[in-house]
């Protein structure tokens, strides 16, 4: 008795899984920072997902499941080969953010609003660079929350991490990202340098 | 992370991102809302963060997949035959399954009755070159399904006869299991136990990530 390919099964899988291709590719690109690697990563994730499609059918939230496979595939294939990024001193980031980024604006010491600054002076590729420089754990959660609009529970399911971890990574990721954008703006002279605070 | 009954400004500013996202339990969301309703300083903080969030969401645009990637994936799926339990013997040639069989043969040659080496009794501390005695706590999983991201409930429901239980010792780190003891074989085959934390003891052959199991218990008491 042959166990050959099922066209209908494959079509069913493509109908439910391929609509999420752009979202998966976007995250893959943010993880690998290389378009070629991102394409390979996404293709391998889809092949793995198809292989286990029969087992999956009992559940829902296929998008979270696909993201989980993508991330596991990334960990298996790419993360071990990457140079470990510098550790982030988050206490310093938080101090800068609270005193400088938020503090300066709320005290009226900066002439423009965040919107005016980031929209007018910081380029798109600089925003992308700021995201790419986030530690991978923060970067993933920030992308899934801000770009994909996933709920905290969906993110927790996709990454197999507790809800509290999603919240803390998003908190740290956003502060670090916003601090980095403020620093871009400061270097360009769009915001005044902060007084008496080392950045 | 829960919001305390009496929210102060420091706590509001700690939770402001999550308040914006509307992802907190309703009572927590309401406590924060009540605080910001009566605190001009935190209202300014919220306004600032709303402005920043709005900018981020407008500037952080997703990158669409290249048009040819979808075609490439469709072609790859068409070439790949889905795994199905059945009478096909092609699965014998799958690299993962063949590697598992090779590992079992190697370990049996080392520890089986025909081995030139005496079997190592539990607790006597002797190990062979390339192995070490271990005792640790790990999670019993269906290795293939776990690597595919399936939940423990889904793994318990997986009836694929080619899937056996293994140990998940860390994120994406697995040990295969073998044992000469009947009770241990039951542990390796019982899919209802997937997701269970177990305390295991045995001889770990590190090169092939295989644990020759000599004792195991649910994390809490000794069973074998």
Explain this structure to me?
Chain A has 199 residues and is an all-alpha fold. In chain A, 70% of the residues lie in helices and 0% in strands. Chain A contains eleven helices and no strands. Chain A has helices at residues 7-17, 21-32, 35-51, 53-56, 62-77, 90-106, 114-121, 124-132, 136-147, 152-159, 163-187. In chain A, α2 (21-32) crosses α3 and α3 (35-51) crosses α5. The longest helix of chain A has 25 residues, at 163-187. Chain A is elongated and about 65 Å long. By secondary structure, chain B is α+β, with helices and mostly antiparallel strands. In chain B, 42% of the residues lie in helices and 19% in strands. Chain B has a five-stranded mixed beta barrel. The chains are: A mainly alpha (199), B alpha+beta (224). At the A-B interface, α1, α2, α3, α4 and α5 of A face α1, α3, α4 and α6 of B.
For this entry, give a set of tags.
heterodimer; A: 199 residues; mainly alpha; elongated; B: 224 residues; alpha+beta; 5-stranded mixed beta barrel
Brief overview, please?
The complex is a heterodimer of chains A (199) and B (224). By secondary structure, chain A is mainly alpha-helical. Chain A has helices at 7-17, 21-32, 35-51, 53-56, 62-77, 90-106, 114-121, 124-132, 136-147, 152-159, 163-187.
